[in-house]
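Input record (one chain):
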Amino acid sequence: MEKALRVYGEVLRLVRRLPQDTRPYYAKYARENFVNYREFDANDPKALDELFHRAYNHSLWVLNKYSVDQSVADKLKEICFA
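The corresponding structure, as predicted from the sequence alone:
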């Protein structure tokens, strides 16, 4: 659970780097996705790792879409792949 909260917090930090008019959409999108998976089986580490990797990859896609330097996601990568 702690790792999921760290990933969520870092995703929200990345949202702040997006253009002002897109931030509410992506903040809501991130929250909805994390809420949808809150009942996920925390006893399945492989499935959790897959979700964290997906969160990282999707974050990179969004950053790239808005031409934000992907190196800002290094901390998220550290958390997701730890």
